[in-house]
Specification:
Shape: rod-shaped
Largest sheet: 4 strands, mixed
Number of helices: 5
Strand content: 25-35%
Structural class: alpha/beta
CATH architecture of the largest domain: 2-Layer Sandwich
Helix content: 40-55%
Number of strands: 7
Low-confidence stretches: none
């Protein structure tokens, strides 16, 4: 009788272990579930899934882990996904003298009421475009001549 119980126990163990999907089958299912979330890779070993990669936010990171809930054969999930910085690196005004000059000129031109003039600055060269009154031209060019200004390209149309 003891021998029969032992034999039935072994057969049940073999039967239940045969029902567990292979790592290859789990990997295929995991890849299908994660295909909607770009930037993620998964590795499966003995039913344990390890997620890696980079996503844009915490929502995507959590969604990847949630997508694997209920996948047959997954015994555990390790989420090593990295989240990109929410704030992109910003160029400070101090890093670029052209930005400083453009900001200075934009402020001066707005204060003077010259909204019809666009200003571009490249390597210290100021280009003025738009329309202006002929009697304002001298004042406009004078305002554009800052210590950082290397050259003024006047493309203004006078009225």
């Amino acid at each position: 009788m003891h021998y029969k119980s032992l034999m039935i126990g072994c057969l049940m163990g073999i039967f239940f272990s045969a029902c567990t999907p292979s790592d290859t089958a789990i990997q295929q299912t995991v890849n299908e579930k994660l295909s909607v979330i770009p930037g993620i890779a998964a590795a499966v070993k003995e039913g344990h899934v390890t997620l890696s990669g980079t996503v844009i936010d915490e929502v995507a990171k959590t969604a990847a882990e949630e997508a694997l809930r209920g996948v047959k054969g997954v015994t555990a999930v390790t989420n090593n996904i990295q989240v990109l910085s929410e704030t992109p690196p910003q160029v400070t005004v101090a890093d670029n003298p052209d930005i400083i000059l453009k900001h200075t000129l934009d402020s001066a031109f707005t204060a003077a009421g010259w909204q019809d003039i666009s200003i571009t600055v490249v390597n210290g060269e100021v280009t003025l475009e738009g329309t202006a009154r002929k009697k304002q031209l001298h004042s406009i060019l004078q305002a554009a001549q800052q210590p950082q200004t290397r050259k003024i390209n006047n493309k203004l149309k006078l009225k």
